[in-house]
Amino acid sequence: MRSSGSTRSPSPRAPIRLLLLLAGEDHPKACTGRRLLRRGAVRPVGRVGENGSRPVVLDPHARTPLSAADLPAARAGGLLVVDCSWNRLAARGSLPETVPRDRDGAVRRRLPILVAANPQHFGRLAELNTVEALSAGLFVLGYPADAGRLLEGFRGGDGFLSINAERLERYRSAESPEAIQDAERALFGGPTPVVSGASARSRPRSAGARR
């Protein structure tokens, strides 16, 4: 989940705590997560559920899509993204082993289907980099202005919001995971499509699929 070439500018704190777990699988100079850390826009964590928190984890292999229904959990525990390699994610079929499942008390959600605008994965379904993923999460949870500010200075940032404008607005207005899945089917046609990369295995074919 990376993207190269951004200018540095300070980022204000989002209304929801943004948490980052670095897997160290991407080149440091191409890692958008590290740039967010340098800006002070995200808080680093060593493991999911650190200090007893129950964050909403953006997990491409979770079955339930992020929706407005997750806002209380995100406000209470934060929104966490694992900065790792999409190639390794696809090969493993899961997040890194350093992110244990079902023992951390976290709420795991996949992002609704969106199109990547970062240079590495431009035009691919679901293969967002770290800053795109956090921005999308903020937008879906009802904070579009903060989502835009987070992307400032990153290559592809403006394009990410513009090419996904209709999708993001539909997802933001959806109040439940089922409504998100209805929107995905309407936007992409027919049953929710299987997508490339790591999300191919997790794309919902019925109610409740996702990262």
Describe it.
The protein has 211 residues and is of the alpha/beta class. The chain has one domain. Helices cover 33% and strands 9% of the residues. It is built from eight helices and five strands. It has helices spanning 32-39, 71-77, 86-92, 130-140, 144-151, 157-163, 165-173, 177-188; strands at 18-22, 43-44, 56-58, 79-83, 107-109. A five-stranded parallel sheet has the order 2-1-4-3-5. α4 packs antiparallel against α5 (144-151). It is globular and about 40 Å long.
Number of domains: 1
Order of helices and strands: EHEEHEHEHHHHH
Q: Oligomer, anyone? A: single chain
Low-confidence stretches: 1-11, 194-211
Averaged pLDDT? 78
Strand order of the largest sheet: 2-1-4-3-5
Provide a count of the helices: 8
Portion in beta strands: 5-15%
Proportion of residues in helical segments: 25-40%
Topology, number of strands = 5
Distance between the termini: 14 Å
- Structural class, judged by helices and strands? alpha/beta
Largest sheet: 5 strands, parallel
Shape verdict? globular
Which radius of gyration do the C-alpha atoms yield? Answer: 15 Å
